[in-house]
Amino acid sequence: MTARATAARPWARFTLGALLVCLPLALALLGPLFAGAAGPRGASFTVGGGALLGTDFAGQDVARQVLLGGRSVVLIALSATVLAYAVALPLAFAAALTHRTWLEELLMRPLDVLLAVPSLLMVLLVATVFEPGAAGLAVLVALVNVPDAARIVRASAAEAAARPAVEALRMQGESWWRIAVGYVARSCLRTLAADAGVRMTGVLYLVATAAFLGVGVDPDAADWAVMVDRNRTGLFVQPWAVVVPALLIVALSMGTNLLGDAGLADRAGTGRTKGRTRKGSVG
Questions:
Q1: What local confidence, expressed as pLDDT, does residue 243 receive?
Q2: 11-37 pLDDT, tens per residue?
Q3: Does residue 69 contact residue 224 with C-beta atoms inside 8 Å?
């Protein structure tokens, strides 16, 4: 396989991923602006008529519910991903750059224990004690993603921190912040970008599953995952009320996964190119 064909693969994945992400993301962010006012409710599970996609189990316009239902899923998933990294990055960099073994153990071992508990089970257990709203669900999902994100970032940061350049920066008297952010974090950017795409897929799955089970959203809320749950009994009568929101969630998940995959492939290709450059210069 030629180098040009190998280089084209990540771009093809990136393009396909971007296309898959654009539609549900645009509907989630801009859909409420075009939803309009709620009309009178009609009969349950109808196809066609005055509504473009028919009506759902409660007689509401499915198209309007789709326009309104994406913002909660997307905003909760984005907020949870950002919060997870906001906690994981300082822990990971501190563990990777410290020379004190006891401090590294103190920071990372509790996270390893949390990894043994399934994420969805943790969310459901906490939800039985408290009743989290949308903000509470975002915090819960973020916390269960912190251990895995911290381990990945710490592994990448530890590799960067072991380079001679970091030791040279220490000998020059550079501050911990400048070393961590100016060099180590910059060296981890490709890994972070790739992991963010994959992690966003997992967060979307967790948020959608929790919403499907009634955690973090009202039972009658306009939400894509809730739409799937409420209308699945009429799937064979009115499929659009289930298929459209389900496909939008799948497209968003697949798109973010492909974007992350493209980042990983690009990182691997860059590493191979650097390796061949070094060998050529030695030769």
A1: 92
A2: 777 888 888 889 899 998 898 888 877
A3: yes
Report the 10 Å Cβ neighbour count for 178.
Answer: 13
**Residue type for position 137:** L
Tokens (6 digits) for 239: 């499929």
**98 found inside a domain:** yes
Residue 160 included in any domain: yes
Question: pLDDT value at position 266?
Answer: 59
More confident: 82 or 1: 82
What is the residue whose two structure tokens read 């409710």?
41
Q: Residue 167: which CATH number?
A: 1.10.3720.10
Give pairs for 157-161: CB < 8 Å, separation 24+.
157/92, 157/93, 157/96, 157/97, 157/184, 157/185, 157/187, 157/188, 158/95, 158/96, 160/96, 160/184, 160/187, 160/188, 161/96, 161/97
- Angle formed by the axes of helices 224-231 and 62-97, to 10°? 130
165 alpha-carbon distance from chain centroid: 32
Task: Check residues 63 and 173 and name the one with the higher pLDDT.
Answer: 63
The model carries a pTM of 0.77
Domain around 194: 41-277
Nearest to 238 by CA among 73, 69, 43: 43
Percent of the chain with pLDDT over 90: 11
Identify whether 216 is part of a domain.
Answer: yes
Structure-token pair, residue 63: 């198209």
Give me the amino acid identity at 105: E
What's the domain count of the chain?
A: 1
Establish if 268 belongs to a structural domain: yes
The confidence band for 42, taking pLDDT boundaries of 50, 70 and 90, is confident
